[in-house]
Design brief:
The protein contains 13 helices and two strands; from the N terminus they run E-E-H-H-H-H-H-H-H-H-H-H-H-H-H. It is mostly helical. The chain is globular, with a radius of gyration of 19 Å. 39% of the residues are buried.
Length: 248
C-alpha cells in the first residue's frame, strides 16, 4: 500500500495506489459483539443527542471502546500496515454505530499505525466525511505524528488545508500540532493560524485558542507575542482561550 498526494485546484488531494490488502476479518467479526457487551443501552440516546449524531450509538463509554479495541487487536493481531489500513477503512465506511467509527480511529493509535503514511488517506476520509469535532479532533494526534516523521509531505499539505473551503480541514491544520510540545514548528503554527484569524466559524475560533493555549504550556512568551501582534484580528474567544493559563 502506498500513499500519493497531488495538487488539484490549488488544494492537495490524497489517494492510494494498488491497495490489495484485505481487512482483518477476525477482528471485524469480533468487534460488534464485544462493543454490544460493553454498552449501556440506556445511555445511547443521550450520547447521540449530545453529539448531535444521526448515526446511532450502542451506548458504550469511550474507555470501554478503547479497552475493547486494544484487547481484540491483541487477540487478532494485524499482519502489517496495509491490513490495518484496509480494516479501518472497512470499519469507517460500513459503520452502523458511532462506536464502530471510534474503533476505527482508535486502531490507528498503535505502534503499527503511528507515523504510518499509508493511513493518511483514512484521516482525510475521516475529516471529509465525518465533519464533526469528535472525529476531527481524534485524528489530530495522528497528523502530528505524520508531521514529525514526514515533514516534507505534511508541511505543504497542512498549509493547503489551512485555506481549504471545508472548515474541518482548516481546523485539522490548526490543531495538528497539539501534542508536539518542544517539537512544535512555530512557523507552521503561525502561518496556518494567521490564515484563519478573521474566520467567524466557532470551531475555527475555538481551534485557534486551543492551539495557542496548548503551545503556551511550552513557550508562553511566543504565545504572548502572537496575541499582542494580532490583537486586532483575534476573536475574543480565541484570545480568551489562548491566555487562559497565562494570567494575562
Amino acid at each position: 500500500m502506498k500513499c500519493y498526494i497531488h495538487s488539484t485546484e490549488g488544494r492537495y488531494a490524497v489517494g492510494m495506489t494498488d491497495d490489495a490488502a484485505s481487512p482483518n476479518r477476525l477482528f471485524l467479526a469480533a468487534l460488534r459483539p464485544a462493543l454490544e457487551a460493553a454498552a449501556i443501552p440506556e445511555k445511547a440516546a443521550g450520547m447521540a443527542a449530545y453529539m448531535k449524531s444521526t448515526m446511532p450509538y450502542l451506548g458504550a463509554p469511550s474507555p470501554a471502546v478503547r479497552k475493547t479495541v486494544r484487547a481484540l487487536a491483541k487477540e487478532h493481531p494485524f499482519a502489517d500496515a496495509g491490513q490495518l489500513g484496509a480494516t479501518v477503512a472497512h470499519l469507517w465506511n460500513g459503520a452502523e454505530f458511532r462506536e464502530e467509527r471510534y474503533s476505527a480511529i482508535m486502531l490507528t493509535d498503535s505502534r503499527m499505525g503511528r507515523g504510518e503514511m499509508a493511513l493518511l488517506p483514512f484521516y482525510v476520509s475521516v475529516i471529509e466525511t465525518g465533519q464533526w469535532w469528535d472525529y476531527v479532533d481524534s485524528v489530530a494526534p495522528r497528523l502530528c505524528e505524520l508531521l514529525q516523521t514526514h515533514r516534507d509531505t505534511m508541511d505543504p499539505l497542512l498549509r493547503m488545508w489551512s485555506v481549504h473551503p471545508n472548515f474541518w480541514f482548516r481546523r485539522a491544520a490548526i490543531i495538528a500540532q497539539l501534542p508536539a510540545k518542544q517539537s512544535t514548528d512555530t512557523v507552521l503554527l503561525h502561518d496556518v493560524t494567521v490564515e484563519n484569524l478573521t474566520d467567524k466559524e466557532f470551531f475555527i475560533r475555538k481551534a485557534i485558542g486551543w492551539a495557542l493555549r496548548q503551545h503556551a504550556k511550552t513557550d508562553p512568551n511566543w504565545v504572548l507575542d502572537f496575541v499582542s501582534t494580532y490583537a486586532e484580528q483575534l476573536s475574543p474567544l480565541s484570545r480568551r482561550e489562548a491566555l487562559k493559563h497565562l494570567g494575562a
